[in-house]
Specification:
By secondary structure, the chain is α/β, with parallel strands linked by helices. The chain has two domains: about 70 residues, Helix Hairpins; about 80 residues, Transcription elongation factor, GreA/GreB, C-terminal domain (Chitinase A, domain 3, Roll). The chain has three helices and seven strands. It has a five-stranded mixed sheet. Strands 1-2 form a two-stranded parallel sheet. A hairpin with a 2-residue loop joins strand 6 and strand 7. The radius of gyration is 22 Å and the shape is elongated. The two termini are about 30 Å apart. The model has no long low-confidence stretch (mean pLDDT about 90).
Length: about 160
């Protein structure tokens, strides 16, 4: 049985775009670079050839990786799910740290989509696991390296 991996619509599209870039643009460019490097003669001492082969290896590995991820992806469009105030995969959650009164906002996404800089956290992260299934107004305790931190869920957005 294949385990489905949750992914947002945006995350799946990003992977499809990267796959298209690799197949349509990068793969032909790398093949051309290998052919040109071969024309320079002795391949054992040809740095351009070895660099191009390394790029090719990376690109082909990434293509296989993306295709594998997309083949098991369960793409979830949170905009099609009725808003109930409950935290689910794909929603954006506004929380308040009850100790510092600091407000944070995170979107709960798949593992490959997570980016702290962009305020997207993996559904498997301790923060997301603490939030999923909870409602607006609930207080959740998140285990951190510094100890438990309590947050109140102040908003759940389907954006």
């Amino acid at each position: 049985m294949v385990t489905r991996v949750p992914m947002t619509v945006g995350g799946a599209q990003k992977l499809r775009d990267e796959l298209d870039q690799l197949k349509r643009i990068d793969r032909p460019r790398i093949s051309k670079a290998i052919a040109e490097a071969r024309e320079h003669g002795d391949l054992r001492e040809n740095g351009e050839y070895h660099a191009a082969r390394e790029q090719q290896s990376f690109a082909e590995g990434r293509i296989k990786d993306i295709e594998a991820k997309l083949s098991v992806a369960q793409i979830i469009d949170v905009k099609t799910i009725p808003a109930t105030g409950k935290v689910i995969f794909g929603t954006t959650v506004a929380i308040v740290n009850l100790e510092t009164d600091e407000t944070s906002r995170y979107q709960i996404v798949g593992e490959d989509e997570a980016s702290v800089r962009e305020h997207r956290i993996s559904v498997t992260s301790p923060m997301a696991r603490s939030l999923v299934g909870k409602d607006i107004g609930e207080v959740v305790s998140v285990r951190t390296p510094a100890g438990p931190v309590d947050y109140e869920i102040v908003d759940v957005l389907h954006i």
